[in-house]
Every structure is written in structure tokens, then in C-alpha cells.
Amino acid sequence: MDSPSFSETIKTTELISEKTGSNQVCVMVPAGALGAGIRKEHVRRGITAGAEIIALDAGSTDSGPSYLARGVSKFNREAVKRDLEVIMAARAEARIPLLIGSCGTSGCDLAVDWTRDIVIEIARNLGQTPKIAILYSEQSRDVLKDKNTKGKIHALSPSVKLTDEVIDSCEHIVALMGVEPYIAALREGADIVLGGRTTDTAILAAFPLMRGAGAGAAWHSSKVAECGGVCTVNRGDGGVLMKVGQDSFEIEPLSLQNKCDVHSISAHMLYENSDPYRLIEPSGVLDVLGANYTQLNSRMVRVTGSRFEPRPYTMKLEGAGKGAFQTISFIGIRDPAVLASLNEFHDRLHAGLTDRINKTFGDEAGAYDVSLRIYGWNAVSGRDMPATAAPPHEVGVMLVITAETQDLATRMSKTCNPIFFHFPLAPNMPQPSYAFPFTPAEIERGQLFEFRLNHVVEVEHGLELVRTQWIDLADASIGT
Questions:
Q1: Nearest by Cα to 40 from 10, 70, 65
Q2: 257, exposed or middle or buried, with CB in 10 Å at 0-12, 13-18, 19+?
Q3: So what's the pLDDT on residue 237?
């Protein structure tokens, strides 16, 4: 059976709240990230409750530099397409705009174009003809070199002064947009805006700011709602609705089984942010030191007292480049003697593996690294555990060999194989055999990628480093 249309009347018991008043701007954030899963019933409730726009993030640096360096999405095409089908159907029927920022995870041009192609495919399948604005924020190396020469690029701690060599070493470099390109696109009549790399908050704050909401309320509400339901009590349950006024905002979940409370809303200022009271954006700083949080009902929180301090405009730069190659191997250990002396075992095994590589490869080894990560002990921190720590029942040990080529990394791993799988705790002990889960034991990880930029660039205004392209599917001249 087909799902009910988004314009159908929903029972009163299914509504999440009354429609927003004229003094508030209502933004629906259906999920924390495009591709993470969007529920149709949640989107229907948001539309019925008065959502005037759908806005959400599609990217992050959380999963490392590989996605930016390669220009590919963290989420698979099927998941992204499925989410887009839900929100594009809702957008068209409700006749409201749709904003998506940091398309394709990294927001580089390749990732934005990948998302664009999926949107066009869905639009044609659904018989839609939206006017689409595409905002590109990938940067020219020559432009950045010129900015750098003029002293317009500044390092963020712990990075150092940028050089042309570092700029040239990056496969892709993006600048994080603020709200201005989104507002410009909306004012030009965009139905759908697909943005390159953007601050998570700017995607949500653009529409309220365009409609005259207070800057403090707009930026703070957007920080709270940036990851959808992460600001709710039941973090995995859908998205949220944010209602933004001049001096206050309200947040509530789209799911009827979920709720927001003062703790879940206030705590989100610490999410991916080292300061619980201040958040830096391209055009200024959000200050919530004087914010007050009020529980309006069992599901909704109102916030007042947020401020936004305008500052000279800067855009954060992210760049990633190619690195060395890795091969990994695993073993499992339950030997009580080894488990009681894991720090000693790690150090002796690491020395034995390094010595084996040096003696076997000599100068051919080049710049390489051997890393042992003991899961169940200290693999996350990498630091020695205190002498008082109780021995674990078992551990998994991952051997990571990094070398200048994949072939070299794998040959080193094979050379280390007998030592890694049979290394005794002490020289006079019988040779043990540890458990190994895979054969062949060597697993090629491929090429590594590295973040190489952690800088900000000064700009005259928020549109300076952004390129906009328009696609109007109502134009019959656009090819199929």
C-alpha cells in the first residue's frame, strides 16, 4: 500500500505541536546526516506542524581524511537516494525549500556533483521540476597561494604557517561556508540548494536569519539541532523541529516517542566543541553564557538569552592529501602469562618486529612504521596501563605496518608473520601459537590519506570563495 501523502490530514493525537506562530521561523531537521535514515512519518509530522523548510547536513570530517582526498561519500548511494526520495517528495508536496550542506561527506566538487546527479535522477523519476542551486566551496590552489602570500591565511593550533608545498600536496581543499550563499540562493528562488562544505550550523541558521530571526537564537538553535535527534533524550530516534524567534527558540523531536529536556539541549554546546559557552562561526561567535533553558512541556525546551558577536569574516580550510600504504594482521591472545604482562609483551614484540624488518630489508625499508594496538587493553589510548590494572581475560592484537608502497608494507608484514604469531613473553619460554582469524593473515589497507590544512582564510564577504551553478529542471533544454 502506498504511504499517505504528505498533505493528508493527520490525526490530532499524532501532531507534535501547534503550528508555529508568525513570529517564529520553523525549520525541520529530519536526521543528523543525509543517508543516516529518515522516517516518512516523522517528516509528515514536521510538515503538518508548520515546517517552512527542510534543512540537514550531509558531511563531516569525523571519519577521517580519506573521503575528502578521494572525493567520495561515506554513505552508500542507496542510503542517500532513499533519504532524498523521502524529503524531496515532502518538499514538493508542501512547496517548501530543501537545503543540504556538505554534500557527499567532504563537500568537495566531486562529492557535490555526486549528490546532484542523485537529486536529478529522483526528480525525474518523481516527475518534479525543481530549480536547483549548487554551491561549490572547493578552492583553487592559485587563489589560496595568493591569499597566503598576502597574509590572509592563518594557522589554527597546533598547525604551522601554510606553505605552497602543503597546498600543492592536497588532492582537494574546501572552505567552510556560512549562511550567505544559502540565503542568496533562496532569495533567487531555489527549491533545492546543494551545498559544498559548510559549517553544520550555517545550513540550519540560513533560513531563520533570512526571515529576520534573532542572530543569537538562530545560531544557537542551529547548533543544538545540527545533528538531528542527538540533542534529544533518545538520541537515535529521528530528527527535530526548531522554531526560531527574535529572542528565543524552541526544540522538539519529530518522534512522538522521544523528548527533549534541559540537559539534552544545553549539553549539545559541548558536542564537537571544546567550549561549552562559545562557538566560532565564519561571521562571528555564538555566546550562550547567558542562555536560559526552560522545559515547556514533557517534549519541548525553550531557550532565551543567546547572543551572537559579529567578527571579521573567515572561512576554515580543510585539505587532504595522499600518504603511505598499510598492511594489517590480527591475533587473539588468552595466555595468562602474556595477559599479566602486556606492557612488557608489547615492548619486546615491537622491538623484535622492528629488528626483523631492519635486518631483512636494510635501506629498502625507507621510512616505515610498526604499530601494535592491543584491543582490550590500551588500543584506544596507546598509553601504558598502570601497574595496578587487572589483566584482561583476552585481548586482540593488531599489527599495523606502514610503508612507502603497498608491496613493501605487505612484504614486511609477511616477514614479521612468524614472530607476530609465535612470540614468547620471555626468550627462554616455549614457542606459543596465538589465534589468528584470517588466512592469508595479511590484509592490505591500501593508501592512507592525511589532513594537511587546519587554517582559516580571511575573506571580504561570505560569497567571495563560493561558486554557484543553477539547474532548472523545468527548462526543456536540459538533457536527459
A1: 10
A2: exposed
A3: 79
Q: Which residues of the chain have pLDDT under 70?
A: 1-22, 476-480
What nine digits make up the cell of 265?
Answer: 539541549
Contacts of 470 (CB under 8 A, 6+ apart): 131, 132, 133, 134, 188, 190
Q: What cell does 152 get? A: 590572509
361 and 213 in a single domain? The answer is no
Enclosing domain of residue 375: 323-452
The residues, any chain, with a CB within 8 Å of residue 180's CB and separated by 6 or more, are 283, 461, 462, 463, 466
Of the candidates 215, 142, 176, 141, the residue with the CA atom closest to the CA atom of residue 313? 176
Angle between helices 180-187 and 200-210 (to 10 degrees): 40
Which pLDDT belongs to residue 22?
55
Q: Can you read off the three cell numbers belonging to residue 219?
A: 545560531
- Tens of pLDDT, residues 304-331: 999 999 999 999 999 999 999 999 999 9
Helix (H) or strand (E) segment spanning residue 54:
strand 53-59
Domains: count for the chain: 2
**b/e code 417-447 from CB counts within 10 Å (16+ = b):** beebbebbbeeeeeeeebeeeeeebbeeeee
What is the DSSP annotation of 192-221? EEEESSB-HHHHHHHHHHHTT--HHHHHHH
Helix (H, G, I), strand (E, B) or coil at 359: helix
Chain-centroid distance of CA 322 in Å reads: 20
Helix (H) or strand (E) holding 310: strand 307-310
State the DSSP code for 246.
Answer: S
Residue 255 shares a structural domain with residue 330: no
Which residues on neighbouring strands pair with residue 398, listed in sequence order? Answer: 330, 373
In a domain, 151, yes or no: no
Instruction: Quote the crossing angle between the two packed helices 109-126 and 77-94, to the nearest 10°.
Output: 60
What are the backbone angles phi and psi of residue 79, rounded to the nearest 5°? -65, -40
> Is the separation of the CB atoms in 77 and 83 below 8 Å?
no
Prior bond of 310 cis (ω within 30°): no
Examine residue 479 and state whether it is found in any structural domain, yes or no: no
* Structural domain contains residue 158: no
- The residues near 314 (Cβ < 8 Å, ≥ 6 apart) are 154, 282, 456, 457, 458, 459
This prediction's pTM:
0.91
Return the pLDDT at 186.
98
Per-residue model confidence (pLDDT) at position 4: 40
